[in-house]
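can u do me a favor
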């Protein structure tokens, strides 16, 4: 049961502002929120008092329609035939909503809607999903920060790192409860993280410490990678599956953010929160569970649509590639010409060093030497021998500064890449 302050419909305006439960005088409607995430499907069915009468959370393994149909059948078995007002949200929900002709709402809007009831004073919401990570600021206007194409610091990253310890996410959480030390681990990329974790395992580091270090890496990546310098302060709410199922991850977030936070809250159904918010964003488009199940069975496969879109993007890339080959060739020619222009003075200087004085000052000047000589170098060595500061000191200073600059650049660049 969603035990927070979702008690009446008076503070919600869906669709045209009509209560979804009194659109006519004879039918009772229930609102169904469907959250299609990158790795999971979540559903939340709310009654007239906005209490959850059915909810579930299940991985879809890229079989979105089949998984959603299975969840709806579970709901039908529990509730019987009922009239519903469905709303879809989530990173993978837009295509499905168009197939099913069901309204779609953006995740940030769904979260904001649910927070109006659960925690209206929320300043920042931190949401971790299977492959998505978000920070939503509500103070001073809504500002959503989301990860890019890399899934570092998300649920799939945690699963991947847990497999290195031969456990799952829950086992990782259990290990992390008894940690003694935290090691630096990069969470921006799974490859970098694995290159940090594997040596720790080889050196015999405690699994408890490694597990806690992995979770701390998720915390660090979320704060530094998404907040990008904007403070996370005030009333903070944790949302999403990883933060719901992994209490140790929440504790490490709290420990890291405690200096600027007024309070930390985690909804009882944090893993369903976006689906609940979608259910609150109802419109006046009604259906029933049987109809949705039939539509899922008869609709064109979402996976097939995704494949088609990938082919389209690949075709566009090939077209861009066709044009870019000419551009690359032109760029190559320009770069070669610039390289020749830059190296020509150096080559000309070296050639001139072998010219006798009459050729050196001849007019018009000649590029190549006719009578090469070492006399200029002989004069140079005599001049160097009579210098007050040994020429070797100049060579050493140049080599030292070059080496120091190179080492410093490598160290600083490596530190920046691993954060």
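np, heres the sequence
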């Amino acid at each position: 049961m969603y035990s927070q302050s979702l008690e009446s419909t008076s503070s919600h305006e869906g669709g045209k502002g009509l209560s979804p439960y009194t659109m006519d005088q004879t039918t009772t409607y229930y609102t169904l929120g469907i959250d299609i995430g990158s790795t999971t499907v979540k559903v939340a069915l709310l009654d007239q008092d906005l209490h959850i009468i059915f909810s579930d959370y299940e991985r879809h393994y890229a079989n979105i329609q089949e998984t959603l149909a299975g969840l709806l059948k579970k709901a039908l078995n529990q509730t019987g035939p009922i009239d519903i007002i469905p709303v879809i949200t989530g990173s993978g929900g837009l295509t499905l909503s168009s197939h099913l002709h069901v309204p779609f709402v953006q995740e940030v809007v769904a979260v904001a809607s649910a927070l109006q009831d659960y925690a209206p004073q929320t300043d920042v919401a931190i949401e971790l999903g299977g492959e998505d990570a978000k920070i939503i600021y509500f103070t001073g206007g809504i500002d959503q920060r989301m990860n890019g194409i890399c899934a570092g610091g998300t649920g799939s990253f945690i699963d991947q790192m847990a497999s290195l310890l031969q456990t799952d996410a829950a086992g990782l959480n259990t290990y992390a409860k008894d940690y003694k030390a935290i090691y630096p681990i990069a969470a921006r990329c799974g490859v970098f993280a694995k290159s940090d974790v594997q040596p720790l395992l080889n050196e015999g580091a405690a699994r408890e410490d490694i597990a806690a270090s992995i979770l701390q890496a998720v915390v660090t990546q979320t704060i530094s990678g998404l907040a990008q310098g904007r403070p996370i302060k005030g009333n903070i709410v944790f949302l999403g599956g990883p933060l719901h199922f992994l209490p140790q991850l929440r504790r490490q977030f709290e420990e890291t953010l405690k200096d600027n936070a007024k309070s930390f809250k985690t909804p009882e159904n944090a893993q369903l929160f976006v689906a609940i918010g979608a259910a609150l964003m109802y419109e006046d488009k009604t259906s029933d569970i049987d109809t949705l199940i039939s539509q899922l069975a008869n609709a064109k496969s979402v996976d097939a649509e995704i494949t088609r879109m990938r082919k389209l993007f690949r075709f566009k890339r090939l077209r861009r590639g066709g044009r870019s080959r000419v551009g690359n060739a032109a760029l190559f020619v320009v770069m070669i010409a610039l390289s020749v222009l830059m190296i020509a003075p150096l080559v000309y200087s070296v050639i001139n060093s072998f010219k006798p004085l009459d050729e050196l000052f001849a007019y018009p000047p000649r590029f190549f030497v006719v009578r090469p000589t070492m006399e200029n170098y002989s004069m140079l060595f005599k001049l160097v021998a009579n210098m007050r500061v040994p020429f070797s000191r100049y060579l050493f200073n140049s080599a030292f500064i070059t080496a120091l600059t190179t080492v410093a650049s490598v160290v600083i660049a490596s530190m920046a890449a691993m954060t």
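The longest strand covers residues 29-36. hope that helps!!
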